[in-house]
Specification:
The chain is an alpha+beta fold. The chain is about 20% helix and about 25% strand. It has a domain of about 200 residues: 2-Layer Sandwich (Alpha-Beta Plaits). Strands 11, 12, 13, 14, 15, 16, 17, 18, 19 and 20 form a ten-stranded antiparallel beta sheet that branches. A five-stranded antiparallel beta sheet has the order 4-5-9-7-8. Strands 1-3-2 form a three-stranded parallel beta sheet, covered by helices on one side.
Length: about 425
């Protein structure tokens, strides 16, 4: 069980003077009004200090009940503490869906969107691209609602906000009709084949994930999530670019139980039971881990992966696995996929701080020619001076944040270090 003062993986201890768990919006507003510095906590899945503050931390875990579905507009509005697993179950009963999900259903919707967290798919944008409106509790305790239709000039800066605008009260998401998905997993695609046919492999399904531990000359597993019907009983091809079809459910992490994972072997299931990798009712991923992730332009994917491979022998002893996925470009100012189709190279590290902190700068140097954008909620060492040119709308975001929170009540060390440093 996660300690109340630590993040989910128990690798970061919050420095806040107080951690609150309010049960009503009125309580949240009162805390915000009376705090000098305040931030929100979702499901504590960030691996760095992005949600921390020296003042008051507000856990939103109890604010996860209210749901309002608009059938005509095909939107849903939820409280800020709701997790994707909870929302997905509800939407499926109403025959609606979200077009994309992250690998973990355990994470909060608001927290995932605020950090540009993503699922996978050449034509699938990050999770924040489904947001059509968001309501914040701002510094004086009042509420301010932004929507795509009413605030077109700034809305692209509002959702992926890194917590700089206020405490989210509610969020509205665009929906699509429910759909079915099947997962087929292939083991052992030769690494060279995967690189040579990278675009074909990644684009050949609704969502594709390649997993490697860098210790083998093969891609350990390739997960293919394809749209289907619930009565699909067709057999998948026994081989795929030299990989063999798995006949049993697998966990992408070596020696980890497959019971934690969503059903594979081509058995059709609803979108909310297949697009994510892990099941809601089990501990996600490994638990004892660190994470870092870098998004590079899709056009540079092969070169970037080969660059990382040059130190595979150094990475392999310290990594559980690396996942490679694609994300469609979007227009959100601080999105890691802003205006560029992207490939994410995600590292799930063993909980070995010294080794990981020594390896990250090496990986970042190797990826530097491709202007990598690190996931905001994971571990990285890229200096702010290098990050700033990679976000063309950074100045616009600063102006937005300063207009909504002029006294910096929601600012913290992370924002000062990476967003507001070297202001001009």
């Amino acid at each position: 069980m996660t300690h109340p003062e630590q993040n989910w993986a128990e690798c970061y201890t919050y420095k806040a003077a107080h951690i609150h768990s309010p049960r009503t919006i009125d309580e949240v507003q009162q805390i915000v009004r009376t705090s000098a510095k305040v931030k929100a906590l979702g499901t504590r899945h960030s691996f760095n200090d992005i949600p921390d503050t020296p003042g008051d931390l507000i856990s939103l875990r109890h604010l996860n009940q209210a749901i309002s579905l608009d059938h005509d507009k095909q939107t849903v509005t939820i409280e800020a503490g709701m997790r994707y697993g909870e929302l997905g179950r509800y939407l499926e009963t109403e025959k609606f869906a979200l077009p994309n999900l992250a690998s973990l259903p355990h994470i909060s919707v608001v927290g995932a969107c605020a950090t540009a967290t993503h699922g996978s798919g050449d034509r699938n944008g990050n999770l924040a691209t489904a947001v059509s409106a968001i309501e914040y509790i701002v510094a004086d305790g009042s509420s301010v609602r932004f929507s795509r239709s009413d605030h077109p000039d700034v809305f692209d800066g509002v959702v992926v906000s890194l917590g700089a605008l206020g405490i989210a009260k509610s969020i509205t998401l665009d929906l699509v009709p429910s759909f079915a998905v099947r997962q087929d997993v292939y083991e052992g695609i030769p690494f060279e084949t995967a690189i040579t046919h990278f675009d074909e492999i990644m684009s050949g399904a609704y969502s594709t994930s390649m997993f490697t531990d860098w210790a083998s000359p093969k891609i350990n597993q390739t997960w293919r999530k394809r749209l289907t019907s619930t009565d699909d009983i067709t057999e998948a091809d026994p081989t795929f670019f030299g990989g063999s079809l798995a006949k049993r459910d697998l966990n992408p992490i070596k020696n980890a139980s497959p019971k934690n994972c969503t059903t594979q072997t081509g058995i059709p299931g609803r979108w909310n039971e297949r697009l994510n990798h892990f099941r809601m009712e089990f501990t996600p991923s490994v638990g004892e881990e660190l994470q870092s992730e870098y998004l590079v332009p899709r056009r540079d994917a092969v070169e970037a992966i080969l660059a990382v491979q040059t130190i595979a022998d150094q990475i392999a002893p310290h990594v559980h696995l690396t996942e490679i996925r694609s994300i469609a470009a979007d227009r959100m100012w601080l999105s890691t996929a802003y205006e560029r189709d992207s490939i994410a190279i995600h590292f799930t590290w063993k909980k070995e701080w010294e080794a990981v902190h020594a390896l990250m700068p090496q990986i970042e140097v190797l990826l530097a020619p491709y202007s990598p954008r690190p996931h905001w909620g994971k571990l990285f060492t890229v200096p702010a001076a290098h990050l700033h040119p990679r976000y063309p709308q950074l100045r616009a975001f600063r102006r937005l944040a300063s207009s909504v929170d002029p006294d910096g009540k929601f600012r913290n060390d992370f924002l000062d270090r990476y967003i507001f440093s070297n202001e001009d």
